[in-house]
Design brief:
226 residues; alpha/beta; 6-stranded mixed sheet; 5-stranded antiparallel sheet; 6 helices; 11 strands; 32% helix; binds adenosine-5'-diphosphate
């Protein structure tokens, strides 16, 4: 679990301000839901946390350590202990479920035996034990979401970033996945930052809801769940 802190962080693309002097603290193990209309800066905020975008000004701290500051990433994405599940799941279709989940562990040079064990644990966790050798293309939407979740969690991230991860699922699958995410949060413990347009998802998943508006935190709704 990690603490995330933004101090007066701004980010523009060309002349377009995406994040406008945001200060924000997310406590360890908190589940923050980001809300707001399209283009208000939700994805940019996640990219800044992940190190996929650099702030133009301000500081980003993870566990009290400076991860990024004006124009510079001081910690690479892979140093930040972050797992990501975005709307476009980007599963590798030519790899099996096991290989997809194993990928981040290979990048982290986890030893062979430990890797296999970890993949096994992950597929059990998301209840996909029977699909180790299946290709993602042969799975249902919900099963693919679970593979993406297992892949994101395999490296035991301290922070999990999710950008509308359930938006392509029907109601029943979405509900199942929400329960899954809460169960995993309970079992593993991670700090969650979750982007959605859905009030149901926000209510169920968030310990706090933050509404963004034009790159700023809308103070009226920074607090209790929506
Ligand atoms: P949201 O996720 O809330 O829909 P974004 O963070 O994607 O919002 O976008 C915030 C603003 O930044 C928008 O005006 C968007 O057009 C702009 N933006 C985001 N990413 C880029 C990019 N890679 N290049 C140019 N403009 C971008």
């Amino acid at each position: 679990m990690s603490m995330i802190e933004f101090r007066e962080v701004s980010k523009a693309y060309q002349s377009r301000v995406a994040i406008d002097a945001i200060s924000l603290k997310v406590e360890r193990g908190e589940r923050v839901v980001l809300f707001g209309p399209s283009g208000c800066g939700k994805s940019t905020l996640l990219h800044l946390i992940a190190g996929l975008a650099k702030p133009d000004s301000g500081d980003i701290l993870i566990d009290g350590e400076l991860a990024a500051t004006a124009g510079k990433n001081l910690q690479e994405p892979e140093q930040r202990g972050i797992g990501m599940v975005f709307q476009d799941l980007a599963l590798w279709s030519h790899m099996t479920v096991a290989e997809n989940i194993e990928f981040g562990l290979i990048a982290k040079r986890v030893a062979n035996r430990e890797r296999r064990q970890r993949v096994r644990e992950m597929v059990d966790l998301v209840r996909l034990g029977d699909y180790l050798n299946a290709r993602p293309g042969t799975l249902s939407g919900g099963e693919q979401q679970r593979v993406a979740l297992a892949r994101a969690l395999a490296t035991a991230p301290r922070i999990l970033l999710m950008d509308e991860p359930l938006s392509n699922l029907d109601d029943e699958l979405s509900l199942q996945m929400r329960q899954e995410i809460l169960r995993l949060h309970y079992d593993i413990g991670f700090t969650l930052v979750y982007v959605t347009h859905s009030h149901n998802e926000a209510k169920e998943l968030g310990t706090r809801t933050i509404r963004l508006r034009q790159g700023r935190i809308d103070s009226a709704s920074n607090g209790a769940a929506a």
